[in-house]
Design goal:
252 residues; alpha+beta; three-stranded antiparallel sheet; 2 helices; 24% helix; disordered N terminus
């Protein structure tokens, strides 16, 4: 039997469709994570940028594919939600983060849901991370304090006595070099956070996430449609390839 195989150009749409499916899965994972954190204070949603790309394959053939280029963070402020808790604070700033000390190092966060531990130190709501002041130190509320007031620039007053100032820091790159660690913590990586001067803190409430449930639902539906379309393209190309394969008796 003699088989004439289809040339490379017949197979190329399959490669493009498959790369599109892989990129759509990444996009779906990002959107799913956004929805999972819709109620996480200070969470910033992300989106994936899909691009058409090319590279040289075997025999210098040009291979086309779809690439999930990078995840971009939406830096818009979330809305303010009043809670009435004096240790809940909302941070309004395009480039501003609280700094917390964990057992693995110092990281950034937008989550202003704080509490006091048994030593009177200001910590995150989980109780495991210390909230730091501008100098990187702990903030201590004296025992027996009746009233805690936190001013717009982070000054913490215990019964009208200033006991510390919540540090707010900025970084140069809020996209590629600011890594998500989970638990609403961000790693500045090689960047050195600097004290920010352009921010506003509001007590007795939290900054909600800036996730739009409607927008994310639309993204997920569009992603699934694109995935199904790519699957259809591959099925059609598979049928086309089978028809183009010429099988005929080979004379000896």
């Amino acid at each position: 039997m003699h088989i004439n195989k289809p040339d490379y150009s017949v197979q190329k749409p399959n490669a493009v469709a498959l790369s599109s499916q892989e990129a759509q899965w990444v996009r779906l994972a990002i959107s799913t994570n956004n929805l999972a954190n819709a109620n996480t204070p200070g969470f910033k949603s992300q989106m994936i940028k899909l691009v058409n790309a090319t590279q040289k394959g075997k025999d210098n053939r040009v291979v086309n594919y779809v690439c999930a280029n990078k995840a971009l963070r939406n830096l818009a402020n979330g809305s303010y939600r009043q809670t009435g808790n004096p240790l809940d604070v909302s941070l309004s700033s395009v480039n501003g983060y609280f700094m917390v000390e964990t057992d693995k190092g110092k990281y950034l966060t937008r989550n202003g849901q704080f509490a006091l531990n048994s030593d009177g130190k200001l910590v995150t709501a989980s109780g495991s991370n210390y909230v730091l002041d501008q100098g990187g130190g702990h903030i201590v509320i004296p025992s027996g304090t009746n009233q805690i007031i936190i001013h717009s620039k982070g000054g913490v007053y215990a019964d009208s006595v200033l006991v510390g100032k919540i540090g707010v820091f900025s970084v140069d790159d809020q996209q590629e070099q600011l890594k998500c660690l989970g638990n609403n913590l961000l790693d500045p990586t090689q960047q050195v956070p600097e004290i920010s001067n352009t921010y506003y803190i509001k007590q007795f409430g939290l900054e909600d996430s800036n996730v739009s449930g409607v927008s994310e639902s639309i993204v997920m539906m569009e992603t699934l449609r694109q995935f199904e379309y790519a699957q259809q393209v591959m099925q059609e190309q598979d049928q086309k390839s089978k028809k183009e394969i010429n099988v005929s008796p080979k004379n000896v």
